[in-house]
Amino acid sequence: MNATPRWLNPEQKAAWDSFIRMQETLIGRLSRRVQADSHMSAADYLVLVSLTERGGGRMRFLDLANSVEWEKSRMSHQVRRMTNRGLVSKEECPDDGRGAFIVATPAGYKAIEEAAPTHVAHVRRLFIDALTQEELDTLARISNRVLEHMKKQPD
Length: 155
Known about the structure:
Blueprint: H1 10-38, H2 42-54, E1 58-60, H3 61-67, H4 72-84, E2 88-93, E3 96-104, H5 106-126, H6 133-151
Antiparallel strand pairs: 1-3, 2-3
Helix pairs in contact: 1-5, 2-5, 3-4
């Protein structure tokens, strides 16, 4: 690393600060709505979405943690809380004695199916409706470019 920091210029700082404020405000408001509307935490919702949309209802523990960008310990605590509430179950992996599958239970499916329509309405109201389709397309391209760039960078 360079000894001298490469400070952001005023335009870069303004863009970064606006992005962070928007992201934190949006996530905060959506998290509060999920909690109020469905009595699930935002973390519960995120895990259930990952399991049901990406994993077909069942994912290896580490794949689930990676899909939501969490450390193993955070995922372990979250899975324990969700297991205690009957939203997920943990199954041993027959071909890997140390691995486990996390499985959405019928109660987990019911919870996400009930929460998703209201959640998407809030996403639309707070985010989608503020932008034109062209702006959404541009945002998707920018987001994907940054994600691809991050894959090439050390963690």
